[in-house]
Protein backbone atom coordinates (compact mmCIF):
# COMPACT_ATOMS: atom_id res chain seq x y z
CA UNK A 1 0.00 0.00 0.00
CA UNK A 2 2.83 2.37 0.83
CA UNK A 3 4.23 1.99 -2.72
CA UNK A 4 0.83 2.75 -4.18
CA UNK A 5 0.29 5.90 -2.12
CA UNK A 6 3.75 7.40 -1.62
CA UNK A 7 4.03 10.82 -3.25
CA UNK A 8 0.70 10.40 -5.02
CA UNK A 9 -2.13 12.84 -5.11
CA UNK A 10 -5.37 11.34 -3.91
CA UNK A 11 -8.96 12.48 -4.02
CA UNK A 12 -11.04 12.50 -0.87
CA UNK A 13 -14.77 11.92 -1.19
CA UNK A 14 -16.96 12.73 1.78
CA UNK A 15 -20.11 10.96 2.83
CA UNK A 16 -22.73 12.62 5.04
CA UNK A 17 -20.31 13.79 7.76
CA UNK A 18 -16.66 14.81 7.43
CA UNK A 19 -15.61 13.90 10.99
CA UNK A 20 -16.47 11.33 13.63
CA UNK A 21 -17.08 12.02 17.32
CA UNK A 22 -13.30 11.97 17.90
CA UNK A 23 -12.85 14.64 15.17
CA UNK A 24 -11.08 12.22 12.82
CA UNK A 25 -11.67 12.78 9.13
CA UNK A 26 -13.99 10.29 7.46
CA UNK A 27 -13.37 10.10 3.74
CA UNK A 28 -13.24 7.64 0.88
CA UNK A 29 -9.79 7.79 -0.74
CA UNK A 30 -9.25 7.47 -4.50
CA UNK A 31 -6.14 7.39 -6.65
CA UNK A 32 -5.98 9.67 -9.71
CA UNK A 33 -6.93 6.70 -11.92
CA UNK A 34 -10.20 6.31 -9.95
CA UNK A 35 -9.17 3.25 -7.92
CA UNK A 36 -10.77 3.09 -4.48
CA UNK A 37 -8.02 2.59 -1.84
CA UNK A 38 -10.43 1.02 0.64
CA UNK A 39 -11.44 -1.63 -1.92
CA UNK A 40 -7.78 -2.42 -2.59
CA UNK A 41 -7.07 -2.79 1.14
CA UNK A 42 -10.18 -4.88 1.84
CA UNK A 43 -9.54 -7.11 -1.18
CA UNK A 44 -5.97 -7.75 -0.01
CA UNK A 45 -7.12 -8.55 3.52
CA UNK A 46 -5.39 -5.48 4.96
CA UNK A 47 -8.46 -3.94 6.62
CA UNK A 48 -11.95 -4.50 7.97
CA UNK A 49 -14.92 -2.45 6.85
CA UNK A 50 -15.83 -0.17 9.72
CA UNK A 51 -18.92 1.98 9.47
CA UNK A 52 -19.54 5.22 11.34
CA UNK A 53 -23.17 6.34 11.12
CA UNK A 54 -24.52 8.12 9.18
CA UNK A 55 -21.65 7.48 6.73
CA UNK A 56 -22.72 4.14 5.34
CA UNK A 57 -23.21 4.72 1.61
CA UNK A 58 -20.44 2.24 0.66
CA UNK A 59 -21.03 -0.30 3.42
CA UNK A 60 -22.53 -3.08 1.28
CA UNK A 61 -19.78 -2.80 -1.33
CA UNK A 62 -17.01 -2.80 1.28
CA UNK A 63 -18.50 -5.72 3.21
CA UNK A 64 -18.53 -7.84 0.02
CA UNK A 65 -14.80 -7.23 -0.55
CA UNK A 66 -14.06 -7.90 3.13
CA UNK A 67 -16.02 -11.16 3.05
CA UNK A 68 -14.14 -12.33 -0.07
CA UNK A 69 -10.75 -11.73 1.62
CA UNK A 70 -12.03 -13.37 4.78
CA UNK A 71 -13.17 -16.51 2.94
CA UNK A 72 -9.77 -16.71 1.23
CA UNK A 73 -8.04 -16.15 4.61
CA UNK A 74 -5.94 -13.29 3.24
CA UNK A 75 -3.93 -10.80 5.29
CA UNK A 76 -5.38 -10.00 8.71
CA UNK A 77 -7.88 -12.86 8.38
CA UNK A 78 -5.01 -15.28 9.09
CA UNK A 79 -4.65 -13.79 12.60
CA UNK A 80 -6.62 -15.41 15.41
CA UNK A 81 -7.71 -12.02 16.74
CA UNK A 82 -9.77 -11.50 13.56
CA UNK A 83 -11.44 -14.91 13.69
CA UNK A 84 -15.00 -15.01 15.02
CA UNK A 85 -14.88 -16.12 18.65
CA UNK A 86 -17.68 -17.73 20.57
CA UNK A 87 -18.60 -15.61 23.59
CA UNK A 88 -17.45 -18.32 26.05
CA UNK A 89 -13.95 -18.27 24.50
CA UNK A 90 -13.33 -14.64 25.42
CA UNK A 91 -10.68 -13.79 27.94
CA UNK A 92 -11.34 -11.13 30.59
CA UNK A 93 -8.83 -8.67 29.14
CA UNK A 94 -9.80 -8.91 25.48
CA UNK A 95 -10.02 -5.63 23.59
CA UNK A 96 -9.81 -4.27 20.08
CA UNK A 97 -12.05 -4.78 17.08
CA UNK A 98 -13.59 -8.25 17.32
CA UNK A 99 -16.17 -10.59 15.86
CA UNK A 100 -18.17 -12.32 18.61
CA UNK A 101 -20.79 -15.06 18.29
CA UNK A 102 -23.30 -16.22 20.90
CA UNK A 103 -26.95 -16.70 21.77
CA UNK A 104 -29.19 -14.00 23.21
CA UNK A 105 -29.82 -14.69 26.91
CA UNK A 106 -31.75 -11.53 27.75
CA UNK A 107 -32.64 -8.07 26.50
CA UNK A 108 -33.06 -5.09 28.80
CA UNK A 109 -34.39 -1.71 27.76
CA UNK A 110 -33.35 1.51 29.46
CA UNK A 111 -34.13 5.17 28.93
CA UNK A 112 -31.46 5.81 26.27
CA UNK A 113 -30.29 2.34 25.25
CA UNK A 114 -30.89 -1.40 25.26
CA UNK A 115 -28.57 -4.22 26.33
CA UNK A 116 -28.45 -7.63 24.72
CA UNK A 117 -26.80 -10.09 27.07
CA UNK A 118 -24.94 -12.97 25.39
CA UNK A 119 -23.42 -14.31 28.61
CA UNK A 120 -22.95 -13.25 32.22
CA UNK A 121 -19.78 -11.43 31.13
CA UNK A 122 -20.63 -10.07 27.66
CA UNK A 123 -23.27 -7.67 26.39
CA UNK A 124 -24.12 -5.60 23.32
CA UNK A 125 -25.00 -1.96 24.00
CA UNK A 126 -27.48 -0.49 21.50
CA UNK A 127 -28.36 3.20 21.45
CA UNK A 128 -32.06 3.89 20.96
CA UNK A 129 -31.37 5.57 17.61
CA UNK A 130 -30.20 2.19 16.26
CA UNK A 131 -32.64 -0.10 18.08
CA UNK A 132 -35.74 0.58 15.90
CA UNK A 133 -33.89 -0.77 12.84
CA UNK A 134 -33.47 -4.19 14.51
CA UNK A 135 -36.61 -4.26 16.70
CA UNK A 136 -38.48 -6.73 14.46
CA UNK A 137 -35.62 -9.21 14.66
CA UNK A 138 -35.77 -9.03 18.45
CA UNK A 139 -39.49 -9.72 18.73
CA UNK A 140 -40.09 -10.98 22.27
CA UNK A 141 -41.34 -14.36 21.07
CA UNK A 142 -38.31 -15.03 18.88
CA UNK A 143 -35.15 -13.64 20.49
CA UNK A 144 -34.49 -16.09 23.35
CA UNK A 145 -31.39 -18.22 22.56
CA UNK A 146 -31.26 -16.80 19.04
CA UNK A 147 -27.76 -17.05 17.56
CA UNK A 148 -26.11 -13.73 16.71
CA UNK A 149 -22.75 -12.44 15.57
CA UNK A 150 -21.70 -8.95 16.53
CA UNK A 151 -18.68 -6.96 15.38
CA UNK A 152 -17.11 -3.91 16.92
CA UNK A 153 -14.69 -2.62 19.53
CA UNK A 154 -14.73 -4.62 22.73
CA UNK A 155 -14.40 -2.62 25.93
CA UNK A 156 -15.09 -3.18 29.60
CA UNK A 157 -18.02 -1.49 31.31
CA UNK A 158 -18.82 -2.15 34.98
CA UNK A 159 -16.71 -5.30 34.90
CA UNK A 160 -18.40 -6.76 31.82
CA UNK A 161 -17.12 -6.97 28.27
CA UNK A 162 -19.28 -5.19 25.76
CA UNK A 163 -19.52 -3.95 22.21
CA UNK A 164 -21.33 -0.68 21.55
CA UNK A 165 -23.25 -1.34 18.35
CA UNK A 166 -22.32 1.43 15.90
CA UNK A 167 -24.52 0.27 13.00
CA UNK A 168 -27.41 -2.21 12.67
CA UNK A 169 -25.43 -4.18 10.08
CA UNK A 170 -22.85 -5.02 12.79
CA UNK A 171 -25.36 -7.41 14.39
CA UNK A 172 -26.21 -10.46 12.28
CA UNK A 173 -28.90 -13.03 13.10
Topology of this structure?
Blueprint: H1 2-5, E1 11-19, E2 25-30, H2 37-43, H3 59-71, E3 85-86, E4 96-103, E5 106-109, E6 113-119, E7 122-127, E8 147-157, E9 160-164, E10 171-172
Parallel strand pairs: 3-4, 7-9
Antiparallel strand pairs: 1-2, 4-8, 5-6, 6-7, 8-9, 8-10
Looking at how many chains there are and whether they match, the oligomeric state comes to single chain
Reported by name, the CATH topology of the largest domain is: OB fold (Dihydrolipoamide Acetyltransferase, E2P)
| CATH architectural type of the largest domain | Beta Barrel
Distance between the termini: 34 Å
Features:
globular, two-stranded antiparallel sheet, 8-stranded mixed sheet, 173 residues, single chain, 14% helix, 2 domains, OB fold (Dihydrolipoamide Acetyltransferase, E2P), 35% strand, mainly beta, 10 strands, 3 helices
Task: Describe what is shown at a glance.
This protein has 173 residues and is mainly beta. The protein contains three helices and ten strands, in the order H-E-E-H-H-E-E-E-E-E-E-E-E. Helix 2 (37-43) runs parallel beside helix 3 (59-71).
